[in-house]
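Q: Hi! Curious about what Cobyric acid synthase looks like structurally. Here's the sequence.
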Amino acid sequence: MKNKSIMLQGTASSVGKSVLTAALCRIFKEDGLDSMPFKSQNMALNSYITDEGLEMGRAQVCQAEAAMVKPEVNMNPILLKPTGEKNAQVIVSGKVYGNMSASEYHQFKPKLKKIILSAFDELQKKADVIVIEGAGSPAEINLKDNDIVNMGMAKMVDAPVLLIGDIDRGGVFASIYGTIMLLDEDERKRVKGLLINKFRGDRKILNPGLKQLEALTGIPVLGVIPYGKFDIEEEDGEAERLKSKALSSNKIDVCVIRLPRISNFTDFHWLEKHPLVNIRFVEDPGLLGRPDLIIIPGTKNTLEDLLFLREKGLDKSILSARDKGSAIVGICGGFQILGKKLVDPHGVESNIRELEGLGLLNVETIFDREKVTKQTKAEVIFENIDNKMKNIAVEGYEIHMGKTTLNDEAKPFAEIKDSQEFTIRYDGAISSDGKVWGTYLHGIFDNEEFNNALLMFLSNDLNIDEIEKRGSFKAYKEEQYDILAKTVRESIDMKRIYEILEEHSQ
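A: Let's find out. The predicted structure is below.
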């Protein structure tokens, strides 16, 4: 089987397209096929940096992991990172192209077709089957003229389509039927099957509705997928995991500040799943309390989110918790917020030119027009945090516009040795007492040795054997992909899906 593709589209955002794309990638891999994910245009604040220093959507990284292949920017040639309600940073083939308004980008889209097709063609050289993910809904009739991500994409590569509806939010029959009816006739013919996702309940009660839906649309229902008991990364900023949670009996309380423009909240996946950690996402200062650790995460607009902290009174709550003994960590934009001053002379992020930070780290940040995107290996200078700890090697990736300077007596968080240029540079900063630190390294919490040392630092009554009971995080993720694939395989007509692939490759 060579150069085959199938596309998953949805009746709306958040119906499960990303997760089901990952599921099919793993199923095809289990069946002996080299599969790869593809999404021509992704809008997300969660991104990743490839080995080549190129930026792509994190959902496609998750799907690549499911397919057991290395992520590459061809899987997501166009990435949009919102900077405000009507504007976004446009990233083309992994590099920043510029900032555009919604109307400007809509006019710009036709110029991207060659880039999208080139990326798709590169994947075809390596894959037996490509699983294409759409975005939002194909029935956005105001956007169809210049569409490059739904039916426009399917037409470009002549891909058959499976349409997904989310039954958990209600109205699934109306949303599927309405979507089909708003498609052009040639687009309706391209839809080869319907999938009902996130089902809870008795399938027998659902069956009469499925038969009527098939009769109305003339398209078969190829599966009803249960609300999954698997743990796969989500990319939506409104994901369930970002909602505030109550304190639990777990030994270590970690509070992540839920910034309006939070980016790369996938950084905390490992901590969320550790049985000794209770992680809360908080935007109400009254709910912060005095946790063991406060994390200020990455953000697409550092200055605006710093203003948000002040307007909500979260800045005072963070400083109060610090005085009561909470440790504080800033990741990327969160690191910048912890400093003394932030300056944006070119208006890179917003119209705000200068703000004072929280002042917990003796650093200053100036925003530059050039974006830093690179994978990074470093060694944490742990003696700056706790003399009992040895230096630990970590890996992560950098995505930032700001350049941060350490002032007198400020200590760096990590040492980075550039193997190609034989130079040493430093990342982040640590307060003199080691209770506040910041870093530009996204993915820092994916390093298990580092996490184990961090948990011991936060809780003196833990020992390493107790912490390591949870096992390898990498093994945990692989297990979740397998559970996802099993759940979906048992719920859909894979025989018919293979027949659809064959029919469209002839």
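A: A fun detail: The chain has a mean pLDDT of 89.
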